[in-house]
Write a structure and sequence with these properties.
It is built from two helices and no strands. With 153 residues, the chain is mostly helical.
Length: 153
């Protein structure tokens, strides 16, 4: 029995040694898997950090673009207001120009009227002077001065 027992003991030892080697292999594989998983987690953490930085960068760009858009909108509104103001100024200047044109036309009309009146008055004076001269010349009287003639009128 001891011979069978020794054989079985050797077999058992061999079997146990094989099991121990298999367990060590499994542990080595498991350890390798854990290291790979840890590396993957580290990569994921870095990827998340990189994505967060990119998000912050994009958010800054968006804020900058929004600020530029607001500035452009304000500039556009100012330009529109300036355009409206310029149009109002043009309209006011055109109205004043029209008033001045009417004033010039009125002054021309007044001048024409005064000239016509002056010409009529000059003809009338000439006629009266001629009449007075004719009347005076017949009577043999001296010709009166213009002041005397004016006082008779």
């Amino acid at each position: 029995m001891s011979a069978i027992g020794d054989r079985e003991a050797k077999k058992l030892e061999k079997l146990m040694a094989a099991e121990a080697r298999a367990e060590e292999k499994n542990i080595a594989h498991a350890l390798k898997d854990v290291r790979r998983a840890e590396k993957a987690v580290q990569k994921s953490v870095k990827a998340v950090e990189k994505a967060q930085k990119q998000q912050e960068k994009t958010l800054k760009k968006e804020h900058s673009a929004a600020k530029a858009l607001t500035k452009a909108k304000n500039k556009h509104a100012d330009a529109l207001e300036g355009e409206v103001n310029a149009e109002n100024v043009v309209n006011l200047k055109r109205a004043k120009e029209g008033e001045r044109d009417r004033g010039v036309q009125q002054a021309r009309d007044d001048l024409d009227s005064f000239q016509c009146t002056m010409e009529a008055n000059a003809r009338d004076r000439e006629l009266r002077l001629t009449e007075v001269m004719a009347h005076m010349g017949q009577a043999g009287e001296p010709v009166p001065s213009s002041a005397e003639l004016a006082s008779r009128l």
